[in-house]
C-alpha cells in the first residue's frame, strides 16, 4: 500500500497538469509543445513505476490521456505516439486481466486507425513509423490482456466485430509489408501473432485465412529487393504455423472441439470438404514460396521453418496431402544441410512420427524413390549447391528409414544405380575435363623428388577429384555411400555394384570401383570396431564385404599389370583406385599380406614410375601401408627382403622386350628406396638391359631411359660401404707420383751429377754388355727351355704383375656390375642426343672413383674409354665438353702417373680448348678488338684483353658472359689443376699450363697452391713478370751453404 501511495504521489502532479493543459487546448492559450513535454514526462514516470501499477492507477493515468486523444486533431504526431506508448504500459502492467471489454474495443479501433498509412479523421495526412510502432504495440498488449477475459474474447469473436477484426488484420499486415522501419515490422508481426493466438478462433482464422496467407507469403518469400529482418520472418512463420494448425489441421481433438463450439452456438462451420479442397489448392503455391527460406543464414529462421514443415506433416497431412512431400523435402534439407541441436531435434521428431504413424513410412519410401529418379537430372545441372542439397536430402531420408528398422534391400539396389549415375555425370562434366597427359614421358619428367617427404604418409586423397567444383559433390556422395554401408542390409548395395563392376568400362567402371571400395572400407572398419567391443561370430555382412574386397584386390592387380600403349593410355583414376584396393587388402590382412607381395609389390613400383605426380604420391602411400601392415621397419626393408620377386618381374618384362618407360624405371625406384644393398641382386636385370640396348640401340629415347637406370645404379653402387672402406694403396700411389715429379736441381745434386758424368767418360769404365742373343719372350713362346738364371730373372720381372692380376677386385659382385656398366658407355658416347652424351659422361664420373680401387681393372678401363672421352672435347655441346674435361681430371686424380703419356699426347687438344674458350670470353666481354690470347700452343703470352675479360667475369658477376662459355672455362681450370696435382709433367708443359692459368692465380687460391706445390719458384717468377708481386722476395739460401757462411749480397 505504501508503495502504491508513493507511485500515486509521483503521478498526481503530472496527471493534473496534463489535464489542465488539455482543457486549455480548447481555448486560445493551448500549448501543444507543453502538452508534448508533459506526456513525455508521464511516460517516463509510468515506465519507471510500472511494477507498482494496479487497475485504479491505470484508470487515473488513462483519464488525461483519453481527454488528449479526443483532441487528437489538434496535437502533434509525437504527442499521440507518446500517449499510445503510455497506454500500452498501462494495459500490460495495470489493467492486465481486468481490462474492460468496451475499452479494449475502443483501443483496437483507435490503434487500427492510427496504424493506417493515411488515417481518416486526423489532422495529419500520413502517419509516421514511430506512431505505427506504438499503435501495434498497444494492439498487441490489448489482445494479450483480452485473452484473460471471457467477455472480451466473446466480443471480439462475435459476428458484429468481424469487420473491425478484419480491418485490424489487414492494417497490421499492410504495416508489416509497407513499413521501412524494422521496429515497425517487428511490432506489427507481434500484434498479429497476439491476435491469432489469443483472440481469433478456428472460424475467424478460416474466414480470414486466404487474405492472411496471401500477405504473409509476400512477407516470407525471399527477395533480393527487400531483405526482411529475421525476427519478422520468425514471428510470421509462427503465425502461419498456428493458422494452418487451427484451420486445416486434422487432429481429432481440434475438430471435435470446434464442432462442439459450433453446435452450442448454433452456427454452421465455414470449414467443410469443399473449403478444405480449395484451401489445399490455394495453399500449395503459397507454401512453395515460403519454403524457399531454407537458404536463410539465420538458424532461428530455419528452426521456425522446420516447425512449419513438421506441422504440415504431423497435423495437416490429410488436408494438405499435396504439400507433404514438399514439406518433407524441405525438412530433410534443413536437417541435412545444417548441424545444430535443432537438426537433431527435428530428426528425433521424424523418427517418432515414423514409428507412431505407419502410413508415414509409405510417404518416405515414395519420396526417396522420386528423389532417386530425379538425382541424375539434378547432377546434370550447373547448380553445385542444388546437387549437394539433393544428395544430403536422400542421405537423411535413407538414414531415417534405416534407423527405423525398415526393409531397405530394394532401396539399396536403386541407390547403387542412382549414385553410380551421379558419379558418372560428375566425372563427365565438361567444366572439369582436363587434357590427357602424355603417357610416354621424357627423362626429365621421371624425377624422383616425389620420394622426399612422402615416406610417412598413410592417407589417400580423393582419387576422382580433378576440379574444385567436384570436391564437395564427391565428398557428399562418399559420405552417403558410407551411410549405406553402415546398414545391416547393405549387401544388396554392394552386390549390385560388384556385378556392374565386372562388365563395365570407362567412367562407369570408375564409379563402380570407387563406390564399392568406399563402402567396403567403411563396412570392414566399422565391423572391426564393433567386433573389438562385442565378440560377434558369423557376421554375414562382413563376409559379404570380405568377398567384395577380394574381388577389388584381384581387379586392382589386373589393372596395374595391364599393358598399355600410346593409343590406349591407362586411366589414372582406375590405377589410383587399384592402389587403394591393394592398400586396403594389406590393412585387412596384416602380416599375412607378406605372402601376397609376390603379386602386389611390383605393380605398385611400376605405378610409382609413371610421370603422374598424383600416382607417384599414391604409390608411396601404398608402400608405406604395405610396410606398416607387414611389420617391416621401413620401405627399404620391404624392398630388400622382397628383391627376388622384383628382379624376376623386371627381368621377365625386359626379356619380353616390354619397352614401356615404367619397366626400367622400377629399377630406379628400387635402388632409390633400398640403396646399394639391392644392387648385388640385380646382375641378371642389368644383363637384360644390356641385351635390350644391343637390340634397340637406335631408339635414342629408350637408350636414354635405360642409361638413366644404369646411372642410378652406379650412383648408389658408388656409395656401397664395401667399396668405401677399401684403400688399396692410394696413399703410396700418390707418394710415388709426388716423388717422380720434376723439381729444380740444387747445388749438391748438380755437383754429384757432374762427377757421375765424368766417371762415365773415364777410360777405366767397364766393358759394355753384349747385345742379347735371344728375344725377350717367355720360354713357351720361343719353344725350348731357357737357362735357370734367365727364368728366374723373368719371374722376378713379371712376378709382381702376375700376383697383382690374381688379386680379385673388392666386393666382386658390386665391382663387376659397375665395371660392366662403365665399359658399356663407350659404344653410346657418339650418340646424337646431347642429353644422352651428358648422362653417359656423368655415369663415368660417378663410377670411376669406386672402380679405381682395383688398379688392374681400372687401368684397362682407361684404355677402353680414353679415345671416346677425348673426342668429346670437340663436341658441339658445351655441357658435353665440360663433362669430358671433368672426367679427364677425375682419371688423372685416380690414375696418377699412368696418365702422363696420355696427357702429353692430349696437350695440343687442351691448348686448343684453351684458345677457343679464351677467344669466346674476350668476345663476350664486349671488346671491339678480339685478340687471340694464345698465338701458339707453346707461347706464354696472354693478351691484356683476355686478362680484362676474366677480371670482368670474376669481379662483376652481373656482367653477362655466355653460360656455356663459363661452364667450359671452369671445367678447363679444374681439369688442368687436377693434372698439375696428380700427373708429373715436364718443365715445358708445366710452364705452358702456368701461362694458361696465370689470369686466375689471384682469384683461385686452390689453383695457385697446386702450382706452388710443384714449382713455387716458377710461380714466383711468373707473378713477378706480370707485376703481381708487391715487393721482391729474396729466395732462401740453402742450409748447407749457410753453415759455410755464405749469404746473399746486399743490392743497393
TrEMBL record:
One Pfam family recorded for the sequence: TPR_TTI1_N
TTI1 N-terminal TPR domain boundaries: 8-335
Basic and acidic residues bias locations: 754-780
Annotated region (Disordered), positions in chain: 751-809
Positions of the TTI1 C-terminal TPR domain: 746-920
GO CC annotation: cytoplasm
Organism domain of life: Eukaryota
Biased composition (Acidic residues): 782-796
Protein's name according to its UniProt entry: Uncharacterized protein
Classification via SUPFAM superfamilies: ARM repeat (SSF48371)
